[in-house]
């Protein structure tokens, strides 16, 4: 069955702010496509959400560290959905040890930036005029650098160096994409959710980090509070035309100087297009075929 109506796709929708956003968007009447990397964790979240809003969700597997999985997910979304109104690029991870994906990319850069780049560009033909793309970035972009001479951080890996690199890439990507999508009437913004009590940093296999997170939770925002700005950017009429901005607490905020560096964002854009083989120009040729917003 092909889904009609208002449709939102959320990455990392089984946990933390992704799950909160899924609930909040269903409450606003969206059909929510939950992209998850793990079937069991995804099913658990889907069942929980379905109890509150029956029939409002579907789950599709998508491992953002694996380009083939991302492409397959985008194809499945295109087959199942009549169009796309919101893409919420929310998934993210931080790893304490240096990990590489199948094609040798550092894992945080692979998931937080490259996977979302492939997903976003391959979904462009499905997007309706007026669609909104929201990239959940982080204030951590401020300490990030894009280490073009050592993108995999082989020489000197540190978790926050890798996380900062990937989150700076998020902000640069959102800005570069916003300019390209302006003529198509699609907005792109990024945001910082604040410090939020989620499963960020918790090892999914060993549970390591869960204890520290539960100690910190009382001082942190709830996932719903953390998701508020992303959902605001995705739905509020007051920001319908706003694009290329970075928000915190529902307000535009200045990004770090390096995140405003157009040469840097274009260099990263070219690198990512070349590495992934996904070209904006090619995707753009197929835009504008989706049905108008209903
Ligand atoms: N929490 C904070 O204080 C904070 C602050 C600033 C920014 N952020 C950003 O907020 C976003 C949401 O994070 P959160 O705090 O809600 O953390 P979370 O509870 O850990 O959720 C992260 C989500 O990303 C998914 N994910 C991880 N690796 C993936 C992969 N390879 N493919 C697909 N999905 C993957 C996770 O799936 P699994 O559950 O299956 O692992 C999970 O659904 C992230 O982009 C994060 O960088 C968080």
UniProtKB/TrEMBL annotation:
What CDD domains has UniProt attached to this entry?
A: retinol-DH_like_SDR_c_like
Q: Which UniProt keywords apply?
A: Oxidoreductase
A Pfam family this protein belongs to? adh_short
Q: Which GO terms describe its molecular function?
A: oxidoreductase activity
Q: What name is this protein filed under?
A: SDR family oxidoreductase
Species source reads Proteiniclasticum aestuarii
